[in-house]
């Protein structure tokens, strides 16, 4: 009996020792070090919790995310690295509910163009980066609002306008948030929407104004502001269409000509820091609108898309993500090739661009001309 009890006690001690070792390896830092990291992270991200007990609750989520980061980064030969991004105090469910609101629904059947249909024998550049051509506005931040669809749409239009007119004009997501909610548009402000429907609005509205004229407020509670288009700067597009669906080579051809709006499944991009993201993610479903602004290949031979996100410049690679390209599935990794969509604009459709001061000056010249007749 005594021998049996001794064996039980020994087994318990060994199990406790084993569990203690497992717990110790969950994070490389002590509790005090993690607490210091958390306080530093709070300052860097300007976080301030008001609810009773909220800071402690967020700290526990922060610790869980830190363990995940360390576990991922400890595996040799990873193609990408995770880090303590601005979302490190959010659970996956919270992150999904707040930031992943993209939708693929449109009010009519999509027009699938063949201008960018890849054909055997097509010669495409090995790499493209529209940032180098000045066709990509600085990374923006949608904040705690599911307005990714608006940022994806403006990003594609900004790039196309630069290519066609030579001028990069930063456009208003808030005009889309406030005004593209009439009838059956399919867009719902912070609750989500699609870039295709945003393009439809821009066409029907006769253009979209700049974000300086109509600044972003991170909410969708305001009524649509009436903007007098003849007295401000604005950008027009003629139409829009889809690139061939589920075809990475056609997407590559499209991106070689202009920035392209796409959807990706982005749940596991929450803590992305750098490198070529390979997943895990769903390849048949999208929940986040972004803009593909280029593509390339790393020195190690890893093909990637250059994704401009709308989570601020302090996420990822200064606001960008490299997403694995030439994936084994026709949808592309994380569904990037499921349904690319892009605006169209003729070289002569300059719907841009008189500032109020220039407009008044033009009117003055016209009046002077009439007076001299």
The CATH homologous superfamily of the largest domain is named: Cysteine proteinases
- Measured between the Cα atoms of the first and last residue, the distance is 121 Å
Order of SSEs: HHHEHEHHHEEEHEEEEEEH
CATH class of the largest domain, named: Alpha Beta
The largest β sheet comes out as:
7 strands, mixed
DSSP helical segment count: 9
CATH architecture of the largest domain: Alpha-Beta Complex
Percent range for β-strand residues = 5-15%
- Assign an overall shape: globular
Keywords: Disulfide bond, Hydrolase, Membrane, Protease, Signal, Thiol protease, Transmembrane, Transmembrane helix
Family: Belongs to the peptidase C1 family.
Domain Cathepsin propeptide inhibitor: 38-95
Domain Peptidase C1A papain C-terminal: 124-344
Question: Would you give an account of this structure?
Answer:
The chain is an alpha+beta fold and 373 residues long. The protein folds into two domains: 2-77, no CATH class; 99-344, Cysteine proteinases (Cathepsin B, Chain A, Alpha-Beta Complex), CATH 3.90.70.10. 34% of the residues lie in helices and 13% in strands. The protein is built from nine helices and eleven strands. The strands form three sheets. Strands 1, 2, 6, 7, 8, 9 and 10 form a seven-stranded mixed β-sheet that branches. Strands 3-4 form a two-stranded antiparallel sheet. A two-stranded antiparallel ribbon has the order 5-11. Strand 8 (288-297) and strand 9 form a beta hairpin. Helix 5 packs across helix 6 and helix 5 packs across helix 7 (195-205). The chain is globular. It starts with a helix and ends with a helix. Keywords: Disulfide bond, Hydrolase, Membrane, Protease, Signal, Thiol protease, Transmembrane, Transmembrane helix. InterPro entries: Papain-like_cys_pep_sf, Pept_asp_AS, Pept_cys_AS, Peptidase_C1A, Peptidase_C1A_C, Peptidase_C1A_papain-like, Prot_inhib_I29. The chain crosses the membrane at residues 350-372. It holds the Pfam family Peptidase_C1.
